[in-house]
UniProtKB/TrEMBL annotation:
Pfam families: PaaA_PaaC. InterPro entries: Aromatic_CoA_ox/epox (IPR052703), Ferritin-like (IPR012347), Ferritin-like_SF (IPR009078), PaaA_PaaC (IPR007814), PaaC (IPR011882). This is Phenylacetate-CoA oxygenase subunit PaaC.
């Protein structure tokens, strides 16, 4: 008589289904807090901006623009799904975390305002995101490399679309130029946070998972200045930087956004789709 019962095919099927949940079977770095923290930063940025852009659905200036913004939102939410999925359970992280647990930058959670402000926000963020993802294709982490290689193509289009609209609005009518300048004045104070390197990010840089954003800050500012020059808009004066999003210190706007985004799964936690 064997000392252990035989392993049946149905037992193997059950083991295969639960394998990702078993710590012994998981890759060694899945539970690395430095890696998870960096994935959350990237994923939260894309998730929150995707949700913001989704708010334009049905409200954009034209059908064509409505579809463009919806496609941008879908690109960003797709990125968030991959990044949060590499950090843990993507749905749990998106819908079950409280506002203080989010690690997105403050820029992406700002209200849409009018169309001009939305395009300015998109230009400022997508230019940074494209430059970041170009460099993250050399990350030491496989998941980060793979997402960056795919997403850089998407955010290149995001950047081009936003730049085109900023130029069109800035060099348009007196009213469109005023609104675009107002959008710049609102968003500019959040730009320094994109290049902030705190202790957590420094650890990710040291591991080769992340890249130091300060290395491309000069290129970023030159690129933004070039677009604004074409739009006949002055580069705003530097303001006192607003920081804290990476540490969970958010504006009041994020809580309202999450109340809408998380309502359904929190109200019906056992629902199956």
């Amino acid at each position: 008589m064997p000392s252990l019962p035989p392993i049946r095919p149905e037992d193997e099927a059950v083991a295969e289904r639960i394998r990702p949940a078993g710590a012994f079977d998981a890759p060694a770095d899945v539970h690395d807090p430095v890696r998870a923290g960096y994935l959350l930063r990237l994923g939260d940025d894309s998730l929150i901006l995707g949700q913001r852009l989704g708010e334009w659905c049905g409200h954009a200036p034209s059908v064509e623009v409505d579809l463009s913004l919806a496609n941008l939102a879908l690109d960003l939410i797709g990125q968030a799904t991959l990044l949060l999925g590499a950090a843990g359970d993507a749905d749990e992280l998106a819908f079950k975390r409280d506002v203080l647990d989010y690690r997105n930058c403050l820029l992406v959670e700002q209200p849409n305002g009018d169309f001009a402000r939305t395009m300015v926000r998109q230009l400022l963020f997508s230019t940074w995101q494209q430059m970041l993802y170009q460099r993250l294709e050399g990350s030491s982490d496989q998941a980060v490399r793979e997402v960056a290689a795919k997403a850089v193509k998407e955010v290149t289009y995001h950047r081009e679309l936003a730049a085109d609209w900023v130029v069109r609005l800035g060099d348009g009518t007196e009213e469109s130029a005023r609104r675009t300048q107002d959008g710049l004045d609102w968003c500019w104070r959040f730009v320094p946070e994109l290049f902030e390197v705190d202790e957590e990010l420094q650890s990710a840089i040291a591991c080769g998972i992340a890249v130091d954003p300060r290395h491309f800050e000069a290129d970023y500012r030159s690129a933004i200045a070039a677009v604004l020059g074409e739009a006949r808009l002055p580069v705003p004066a530097d303001q006192r930087p607003i920081l804290g999003g990476r540490r969970g210190h958010h504006s009041e706007h994020l809580g309202h956004l999450l109340a809408v985004m998380q309502y359904l799964p929190r109200t019906y936690p056992d629902a199956a789709w």
